[in-house]
TrEMBL record:
Protein name, entry field: D-lactate dehydrogenase
Keywords: NAD, Oxidoreductase
InterPro entries hit by this protein: D-isomer_2_OHA_DH_cat_dom, D-isomer_DH_CS, D-isomer_DH_CS1, D-isomer_DH_NAD-bd, D-LDH-like, NAD(P)-bd_dom_sf
Organism in which the protein naturally occurs: Pseudomonas abietaniphila
Pfam short name (any one): 2-Hacid_dh_C
């Protein structure tokens, strides 16, 4: 089965080629993102393997189906970027990797918290510049702080466990409370109450019509003044211009983002020689109390290995008529 992997980076190539690739699967690595401009590259490929910023909207899916594609194998857990009704209408199967390493993402959320709280991003630059002063680097102890976890599935629950280890008080919001998180002592509350009480809020829910801009101007006003917000979920869970206003007024004290609503045009590419055209992101990057990473929470050896192996198993399962991890 000829399989074209769009948006493939060197680490994808390494992880797939280190996995157990069945003889029936012929892998072709394509660094370009899947868009209407690049979809023709997939002609005669029955399997297209896509990542989070690939375009899987109706026009692209129609062109894929016309070119002979039958299976979209997502290398991600999230599938908010796929037009599922169109895929179904065209007879395109869609499979995903529901869980690869919740630890990878949860630990990255914690890394953002510690970077912001202890100003590691500023200290790193300062010491490299020969400036060994400490002013402006005062942090706070995590023990005893109240942490709000929005979405307590696999990643949120893992994150909650780590924060319980720091001695934090846990609040949670999820339409389906997780007994494992309740067992940590977390209290489930309505979102506005969680936001009003938490000093740190971390988002781990999927992006859908109910969660788009879950954090907006009104919900930011509900938050404790000076609180920290962490988003490793999806960019559109937050209204970014509203975050900028809240940072300017001091209502939001710290912001850690691994995802950005307009990331598709930017992330995973070296654009360091080019003027940044995105004025919202440019403004965000001026704040000393903001850390942005370019959707790297998933990027651990363990997660990459699991993504590669599950994707290969998904393709073989589909080819054998016993699909697994269907969306
Ligand atoms: P999961 O399905 O195990 O958990 C999601 C949880 O969110 C569920 O418990 C669900 O009930 C809850 N939820 C649904 N609607 C909600 C709402 N309106 N408010 C609050 N909670 C709600 O998924 P997961 O594996 O924990 O992943 C969570 C999200 O993390 C994914 O959807 C994806 O967008 C994101 N993610 C990001 C990265 C990254 O690299 N930054 C990597 C993997 C996943």
């Amino acid at each position: 089965m000829r399989t074209l992997l769009y948006s493939s980076q060197t680490y994808d190539r390494d992880s797939f080629l280190s996995a157990d690739v069945p003889a029936d699967i012929e892998l072709h690595f394509q660094p370009a993102r899947l868009t209407l401009d690049t979809v023709a590259l997939a002609d005669q490929y029955p399997v297209v393997c896509a990542f989070i910023n690939d375009d899987l909207s109706a026009p692209v899916l129609e062109r894929l189906a016309a070119g002979g594609t039958k299976l979209i194998a997502l290398r991600s857990a999230g599938f908010n970027h796929v037009d599922l009704p169109t895929a179904q209408r065209l007879g395109l199967s869609v499979v995903r990797v529901p869980a690869y390493s919740p630890h990878a993402v949860a630990e990255h959320a914690v890394a953002l918290i510690l970077s912001l709280n202890r100003h590691l991003h500023r200290a790193y630059n300062r010491t490299r510049d020969g400036d060994f002063t400490l002013h402006g680097l005062t942090g706070f102890d995590l023990v005893g702080k109240t942490v709000g976890v929005v979405g307590t599935g696999q990643i949120g629950a893992t994150f909650a466990r780590i924060m319980a280890g720091f001695g934090c008080e846990l609040l949670a919001y999820d339409p389906f409370p997780n007994p494992q998180v309740e067992a940590l002592g977390a209290r489930y509350l309505p979102l506005d109450q969680l936001l009003a009480q938490a000093q740190i809020v971390s988002l781990h829910c999927p992006l859908n019509e109910h969660t788009r801009h879950l954090i907006n101007q009104a919900s930011l006003q509900c938050m404790k003044r000076g609180a920290m917000l962490i988003n490793t979920g999806r960019g559109a869970l937050v209204d970014t211009p509203a975050l900028i206003e809240a940072l300017k007024s001091g209502q939001l004290g710290y912001l850690g983002l691994d995802v950005y609503e307009e990331e598709a045009q930017l992330f995973f590419e070296d654009r360091s020689d080019l003027p940044l055209q995105d004025d919202v992101l440019a403004r965000l990057l001026t704040f000393p109390n903001v850390v942005v990473t370019a959707h790297q929470a998933f990027l651990t050896q363990e997660a990459l290995g699991a993504i590669a192996q599950t994707t290969l198993d998904n393709i073989m399962g589909w080819a054998a008529g016993t699909p697994q991890n269907s969306v």
